[in-house]
Amino acid sequence: MLGRLYENQNCSAARTLELVGERWSLLILRDAMFGNFTRFSQFQKSLGIATNILAKRLDDFVTAGLMERRQPGATGEQADYLLTQKGQALKPVIIALTAWGDKWVQPGPVVFESNFDGQPVELQLRRAGGDEEVAIADVVARQR
Fold first, then answer.
1. Predicted model pTM
2. Alpha-carbon distance 52 to 79, whole Å?
3. Contacts 24+ apart (CB under 8 A), 97-102
4. What does the pLDDT look like over 19-43, one tens digit per residue?
5. In this structure, which long-range contacts are made by residues 79-84, counting pairs with CB atoms below 8 Å and at least 24 apart in sequence?
6. PANTHER family, alphabetically (predicted)?
């Protein structure tokens, strides 16, 4: 059985799961990315997550550099949790998981579009430095 950490795994996917693999983590990030949520209360209301778990996840994201916490300007206001560039770079992961779920589980209520022209977007596998698409069956993993 796997523990909370994947210390014996020499794998980037395992190290990433240490940051975002806990229950609720990707949904919090999804709401920050696509719902523009920044406040604790927004995340809590959207997800119905226990406040202690949400606080822990947000603190962990700040510690990992996925979000930054900005203190409120006025007394009594909530802090803002803003995605960093590192956090925003997980956007393709959310898009890929959603596309997989739409195809293999059940279509969901959202589609991803370009903010520029409203056209649908999709993730594709391409050869590095080129435009040639690569079939998923042709992708293998090799040691560096």
1. 0.89
2. 16
3. 97/26, 99/123
4. 999 999 999 999 999 999 999 999 9
5. 79/39, 79/40, 80/38, 80/39, 81/32, 81/38, 81/39, 81/40, 81/43, 82/32, 82/38, 83/29, 83/32, 83/33
6. TRANSCRIPTIONAL REGULATOR, MARR FAMILY (PTHR33204), TRANSCRIPTIONAL REGULATORY PROTEIN (PTHR33204:SF18)
99 Ramachandran zone, left/alpha/beta (phi>0; psi -120 to 50): alpha
Give the pLDDT band (50/70/90) at residue 3.
low
3 state DSSP class of 142: coil
Query: In this predicted structure, which of 13-22, 36-45, 69-78, 107-116 has the lowest mean pLDDT?
Result: 69-78
- Structural domain span for residue 29: 12-138
The verdict on residue 144 lying in a domain is no
- In a domain, residue 91? The reply is yes
**3-class SS of residue 3:** coil
Q: Looking at the 3D structure of the chain, how many domains does it have?
A: 1
Q: pLDDT for 95-106, tens place per residue? A: 999 999 999 999
Q: Is residue 118 part of a domain?
A: yes
Q: Find tokens 């202690």 and name the residue.
A: 52
Question: Is position 123 within any domain?
Answer: yes
Q: Which two tokens stand for residue 48?
A: 């119905």
Contact 26, 97 (CB under 8 A): yes
